[in-house]
Amino acid sequence: MLTALLALNALPKIGPIRVGRLLEKFGDAETILKQSRTTLQSVQGIGPEGATIISEWQKYTDPEAELALCEQHGISIFTRDSPLWPSLFAHCPDAPLLLYIRGEITAADHHAIGVVGSRRCTHYGRSVTRQFSQALARAGYTIISGLALGIDTEAHLAALDAGQRTIAVLGSGLLHLYPSQNRELADRIANGNGAVVSEFPLRQPPDKKTFPQRNRIVANWASALLVAECPRRSGSLITAGMAAEAGRSVYAIPGPVDRPQSEGCHDLIRDGAILVSEPNHILSDLQDLPLFANARPSLPQSQATAATPKVTVRPLLTEIETSLLTKLSSQEVTMDQLAEQVGEPIHTVSATLLGLEMKGLAKQIAGQRYVRVLK
Fold first, then answer.
1. CB-count burial class (<10 Å; 0-12, 13-18, 19+) for 1
2. Which member of 86, 136, 186, 209 has the greatest number of CB atoms within 10 A?
3. Which pLDDT score, from 0 to 100, does residue 344 have?
4. Domains and CATH numbers, the chain
5. Prediction pTM value
């Protein structure tokens, strides 16, 4: 069964959505590989080219040799039936068929926060990434990122330096590690608190298609996503879009208004991402989000005692949130009226109202008017 799944995963132009349709029709991977070209072509979305590729699968891959390579390099393979398969993949229509794992995946990794950003980051970007990633990791959340240079690297290092877990998702096969400059970091992750992960065959090199595929894994594995710093043209914005489409909360750290490296985060905030200026903004927010309800990782008592003093989670509401909430009632009120009542600029009131909506305390109704949600 595993060799058949490895074969399907390695085929060009097929992908998890098409394989999913075939699994619905034929039940398992072995049965799919036994079908004739005509039978395969009868399945919706497969087409003549796809049917030919699948029926001639031996031309493209040797799954037995792939398994031998995995054993030689200490790499394990997770499938959708594996007990520790990321639970949120169940809601992802194009979830990977399998994952190659170097290192260890644990139950704690079901509670992950994605941290992404620009490869060409500034000192400011590195600093805030390290600050946020360490605090989130010490609070018990696995930091997941893409092992790229820049922000990704800082996120992984921050989690490791805090003695906590991190997962690196590659846009290449595990035996074609990219970027090569991060080989030592990948070794440190795999041999310590985390794992290096890929859906691609072991020796597959990266290309312009593999990185968006990598990004969707980060976006769908993580229960929330933090964009630390990025310009307007950045793969991080693709990841943020995927996360938002999957129903994840997207957080963005603002930066200096005169730096192009911050323009992507500012655009995200204008489009509805949650502005955060310190880690506790995320930690307090996550307490009431549905994805995190009753899902905080439980640590052994010795670890819990050691971790508690490192992150002080503030009360659920900030001062401005409290002020705005006192002005809200069952009577409709506009954003302009609220801004005048609390003496804050419109952009501050807008961001704060979004946070109150995410916490289920306020609701926007027709005409951009707001009311308080009574509980």
1. exposed
2. 136
3. 84
4. 2-72 (1.10.150.20), 100-292 (3.40.50.450), 319-372 (1.10.10.10)
5. 0.76
